[in-house]
Design goal:
With 241 residues, the protein is an alpha+beta fold. The protein is 21% helix and 37% strand. The model has no long low-confidence stretch (mean pLDDT 94).
Amino acid sequence: MKSLTKLIYQHDSYLKEYEAIITRCEPGILFFDSTIFHPRSGGVDHDKGTLIINGNKVEVVEVFIEKESGEVAHRVAKPIEASPGTRVKMILDWERRYRLMRLHTTAHILSAIMYNDYGALISGGNITPDYGYDDYTLERFDKELFVEAIEKANMVVKKDLEVKTYWLPREEALRIPGITKLAYRTPPDIRELRIVEIPGIDVQADGGPHVRRTGEIGEIVFLKAENKGKNKRRVYFTVKP
């Protein structure tokens, strides 16, 4: 189902403030015509921030996609008087968002290295502002393999490569070699897919916020590796402040 909410962050991940119009109100939850807040999706945690409604401030504590409508829902910390048609100022918790962006782009670089150099496919993952983890299909558990992969990822970071985002017709996007399986699960009514490309490193269909250049990531730090069962190996990582 295509979202009725215009996702501003997909076009400008660096926009920290924005004005939107309330379209629907439910107890403790607000919906807008558009939003700079990224909902929890694709394994990436949601944004937080502040709304200013009729001069009153309220914190956004959770952002998620409502299953029934596909709209982005903004859960607020306390009840606030609001009605459809009201113009609202949105203010991102930028420190939280920027760490999510840096870790998200890190995950793309790491998954490309794991696939190209070790033949490992990513099978799941999660990104919070503090750290991220990814699961890979590998026959043998080898902590040093992950340490080496993160060293290679840091080399990509130091090259300060551009991170490109653009849109392609669905059929054209699905012809890209190695495109993420997520693209194939995208509902057929979505005719264009958002592509995130790090030239020479990775190209994927992806809907979340990313940094503009790999150099913004800073140093990637290996935290630990875990054996999660048959062919499932997990690596935890973070980025220095």
